[in-house]
Structures are given as C-alpha cells and as structure tokens.
Write a structure and sequence with these properties.
single chain; 14 helices
C-alpha cells in the first residue's frame, strides 16, 4: 500500500470511528480526501457538512453526491462559494430539483446554453428570480417571453431593455399598453422596432378618430 492509499485508508478509519464533534474539529483544520467525502457526509452532522461545503473545494463527483443525497439546507453552502462547471451544470439541469436550480441562480448567472434551458425546462421560480437580477443573452430573450409571458417580461424590462427581435415580439404577440408604457419610459426602441411602434401608434390614432 503506497503512502497516499495509506493516508486515505487512515482517514476512512478515522471517519468511521470518530464522533460528530471530532469530525467537526477535524474539518476546521483540513479537508478529507475527495474519495472519503461521501463517508464523511454520512457520519457528520449538518454543522460540519455546511462548514466543509463553505470552506473547501469539491470535485465534480463530490458536488453531484451532495445534489443527489444532501439536504436542501446544504445548497446555500454548496453554491455560495463556487460556480459549477459544465458537466455539473448539466447534471443540475437534467436531474436536479427546482429548489436546487433556484438556489444556484441566487448566486451565479448561467452560460448561454444553460440560460436557454432555464426557460425551456419548466424552472418557473428560478426563471422569475433570474430575469429580475441578470441581463439575458440575446438568444434567451424570446425564450423568456414565450416561457413566462407578460408577467416575466415586465419583470425583466424593469431593469434591462430588449434586443430587436424581442422588441418586435413585444409589439406583436405580447402587445400590451402597460408594458409598452413601461418600456418607453425607461428604454429606447431599436430603429426597426421604433418604426413598427410608430405604425402601431398611427393605427391606434386612426381607430380612435373613426
């Protein structure tokens, strides 16, 4: 048995026999080897696990272990100090809970691929938080409108404007006087959307005169 294997084995023996108090004292000084992390989570109490998640890095397998087995109470500690890599984000969106996705976007915005997925996979609560706090990729704006409708669109344009394609969609499928009033009070249309907006105002004016 080489030195590394011996150290891992010794750690494992310690974790199996230690009290919860001793485990917490240990992780206040240093982490365990990544292969022993699942056993630590099985034996330790919430205080020790949350401390570990807040202070030490985890490999992909460790993060997935927490997502699969951990309490929702661990998610703040898991996400507050780290952004997930592409593989772990893929797992989060494909197999994670609504609560886990929502907790993640409280701390981090998303790469374009996963931002798009946020509006196509039914993560309602997370999506509403996201549009209230982050600037979307161009490719996400129409997806956001199709997914969340006028309510989500209103939340987004309260802090950010839209690109041309989304503006034109707002002027057609999502036409709403209150929304347009909010938008024009805060932002300027692109030239193409402004032309369309002026045409709509002209038609409305003609209808009122009739």
């Amino acid at each position: 048995m080489n030195t590394i294997e011996k150290t891992i084995s010794e750690e494992r023996s310690f974790i199996e026999s230690a009290s919860r108090e001793d485990l917490f004292l240990h992780v206040q000084k240093k982490p365990f080897h990544s292969s022993n992390f699942p056993l630590f989570c099985e034996k330790a109490d919430m205080q020790a696990i949350k401390y570990y998640l807040s202070n030490y890095s985890l490999n992909t397998e460790g993060i997935i272990y927490v997502l699969e087995n951990g309490s929702i109470d661990y998610l703040e500690a898991l996400f507050a100090e780290r952004e997930l890599d592409q593989d772990t984000l893929k797992y989060l969106f494909e197999k994670g809970s609504q609560e886990a996705v929502c907790e993640y976007v409280r701390y981090h915005d998303l790469p374009e691929k996963f931002e798009n997925m946020l509006f196509t996979a039914g993560f309602d609560k997370a999506a509403m938080f996201y549009v209230s706090h982050y600037i979307l990729f161009v490719s996400s704006e129409v997806l956001m409108m199709e997914f969340g409708g006028k309510r989500m669109l209103k939340r987004y344009i309260e802090h950010e404007d839209l690109h041309t394609e989304a503006e034109l969609l707002m002027l057609s499928k999502f036409f709403d006087v209150e929304l347009l009033s909010l938008y024009t009070s805060k932002w300027c249309f692109s030239s193409e959307a402004q032309k369309r907006y002026d045409e709509l105002l002209s038609k409305l004016s003609e209808n009122e005169e009739e």
